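[step 3/7] fold_predict: job queued, chain A
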Amino acid sequence: MGWLDRWMGGGDEAARATEPEEPKNGSTERRSLGVAALFDGVEPSADHAVLDLGRAAEASLEVYGRYARRIRFADLLREERRRMWTVALEDSVPAQPERPYDLILGWDVLDRLGPEAREPLVGRLADRSAPGARVHVLVDASDATMVRPYRFTVVDVDRVRYDPDGPEQMARPRLLPAEVERLLRPFEVVRAFTSQSGMREYVGIRR
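[step 4/7] structure written:
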């Protein structure tokens, strides 16, 4: 997977996206430095496999289809799946021995899952991914006491649409960078970006 070697030019990196947000019918489209880093240097190939832990979207499928022919949307946070977590993991992220995942988009899964579910999830992702696979996650870095869940759609390699996905909820205790790095192991965090929206993006590589 030489494209990973070409992508790795340095260590952890932080930047702030300054592009203003543009609400559209309750949705917001934002530049995503983290998603851009995830795809940076990836060559189109039928051998690549993408796992999106969110809900299926035609726009995302079109973007992923530029780089891979094996694409799975897990819809992991669907409410009925969260009630039976062990079954949800097996159903949503099944074994794929013939083509482990190269690119994983986890979105805000670490924020929305309880502490007891985070490490089993990352362990499952590591088991289902190829050596050198990349993972992208979002973490709320604000001090807000109430947060709104969102559905995320990749509309281009560096742009993501946020769609409200339910009423506001009490925020869980904020995950600090060191805790995110620990939770993501064996994925090593190599890039980090903070946006004006208060979200922090992490990109890791499975060592």
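[step 5/7] annotate
The chain is about 30% helix and 35% strand.
The longest strand covers residues 129-140.
exit 0
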